TrEMBL record:
An example Gene Ontology biological process: DNA integration
Domain Core-binding (CB): 7-93
Signal sequence, start to end: none
UniProt KW keywords: DNA integration, DNA recombination, DNA-binding
Name of the protein in question: Integrase
Length: 334
C-alpha cells in the first residue's frame, strides 16, 4: 500500500513520465504527455480537494473533464489527450495503483484523417528536380547527383526520412526493367517499391559520381546508400538540411507546407498516385501505411480538390447564376 502522499494524481503522472522516458521519446513528445495529463487532471480537480487523489478519477469525473477539455480544442488534440490518458491508466493498472482502466467509459473521440501536405503548384516537383540537377555556383562543394538521388527516392518512391537513412547500396536491385528498392519500413514492416528508368538512371549517376569521389570501396553493397560530402553516412539533421537547401536553390520555399520538409515529397508522391487513379490498397502498399485509413486520406483530398476545381469553373458559376433565382418548374413533360 502506498503512502497517502503517493496516491495523488500528480505523483503518478511523474512516475508515468519517468517510465516513458526509458523508451527515449523526443522531448517534444514527453512534454505533450505531461501537458495533456496535467491539463485534464486540473479540469477534473476543480470539484475535488487538492491534491487530487488517484481514486477520485471516476468515469463520471473524467467524462466531465474531457467535455471541458474538448470545448476549445481541435479533434486531433482531444484524441491525442485521450490516448495519453489511456496509456496512463494502463500503466497504473500494471503498477497495481488502480483496479481497472476507466477510459473506455469516457468515450474515445474519432481520430481525424491526417491531412496530406504535398508541394503546392502543379509543376513544382519538376521545377525542383530541374533546378537541383544543375550544380549551383554558390555551393562550396556541389554534388547535384547526390542531391537529385535523395529527391528522386522521396518524390518517386515515397520514402520517409528514416527509410532513406536506412538504405544500403544493395537495397537497390533487380533486373533491367524490373528495378526496385527494398525498404526497411516503419514499425518493422519491410516493403518493396518499384522504380522506373528515370530514378534508376539518377541512382546510377549518383553511385558513379561517388565512386569517382571516394573510390570503389565507397559503393560496396553493405555501405550506406546516402552519404555526405565527406563520404560519411548522412544523418537526420544533414538530410533535412540538404532537402531545405534544395528548396531554396529551386526558389520554391513558399510552396512547401509548413512543417512538412522532406515529408512534403512523400506526400506529393502519394497525392499523384491518387490523382492517377491508384486505389487506397495500392497507396497503402507503396507507402508502407499500417492501415487503409491513412491511404484513403490522399484519395479523399484529391477528390475534394477535383470537386473544388469543377466548382471554380467560370461556366459552372455562370450557369448557377442563371438558374439560382428561377422558380422551380414542376409538372413539365420530358
Amino acid at each position: 500500500m502506498h503512502d497517502k502522499k503517493d496516491e495523488s494524481v500528480e505523483y503518478w503522472i511523474e512516475e508515468f513520465l519517468t517510465a516513458r522516458a526509458t523508451r527515449k521519446p523526443s522531448p517534444h513528445t514527453l512534454e505533450a504527455y505531461r501537458r495533456d495529463l496535467r491539463t485534464v487532471a486540473a479540469l477534473a480537480g476543480e470539484t475535488e480537494a487538492a491534491p487530487l487523489p488517484l481514486d477520485a478519477l471516476s468515469p463520471r469525473l473524467l467524462r466531465a473533464a474531457f467535455a471541458r477539455f474538448a470545448g476549445a480544442r481541435a479533434a486531433a488534440s482531444v484524441h491525442r489527450a485521450w490516448s495519453t490518458w489511456n496509456s496512463f491508466f494502463t500503466f497504473l493498472v500494471a503498477e497495481g495503483a488502480v483496479p481497472g482502466n476507466p477510459m473506455p467509459a469516457v468515450g474515445r473521440p474519432r481520430a481525424p484523417l491526417p491531412q496530406p501536405k504535398p508541394l503546392r503548384g502543379e509543376d513544382t516537383p519538376e521545377e525542383l528536380l530541374a533546378a537541383v540537377a544543375q550544380a549551383a555556383g554558390r555551393q562550396r562543394d556541389p554534388w547535384p547527383e547526390r542531391d537529385l538521388a535523395v529527391l528522386a527516392l522521396a518524390l518517386c518512391a515515397g520514402l520517409r526520412l528514416s527509410e532513406l537513412l536506412a538504405l544500403r547500396v544493395a537495397s537497390v536491385g533487380g533486373r533491367a526493367g524490373e528495378r526496385r528498392v527494398e525498404v526497411a519500413g516503419k514499425g518493422g514492416r519491410p516493403r518493396t517499391v518499384p522504380i522506373e528508368d528515370g530514378v534508376d538512371r539518377v541512382l546510377t549517376d549518383y553511385l558513379d559520381s561517388r565512386r569517382r569521389r571516394f573510390g570503389a570501396r565507397s559503393v560496396r553493397p553493405d555501405a550506406p546508400l546516402l552519404v555526405d560530402r565527406h563520404g560519411e553516412p548522412l544523418r537526420r539533421g544533414g538530410l533535412q538540411y540538404l532537402v531545405e537547401s534544395c528548396y531554396r536553390r529551386a526558389g520554391i520555399v513558399d510552396r512547401v507546407p509548413r512543417g512538412a520538409r522532406l515529408h512534403a515529397l512523400r506526400h506529393t508522391f502519394a497525392t499523384r498516385l491518387a490523382e492517377d487513379g491508384a486505389s487506397a490498397a495500392e497507396i497503402m502498399r507503396l507507402l508502407g501505411h499500417a492501415s487503409l485509413t491513412s491511404s484513403q486520406a490522399y484519395i479523399e483530398v484529391t477528390a475534394g480538390q477535383q470537386r473544388a476545381a469543377v466548382r471554380s469553373n467560370r461556366t459552372n458559376r455562370a450557369l448557377a447564376g442563371l438558374v439560382g433565382g428561377r422558380p422551380e418548374v414542376t409538372g413539365a413533360g420530358g
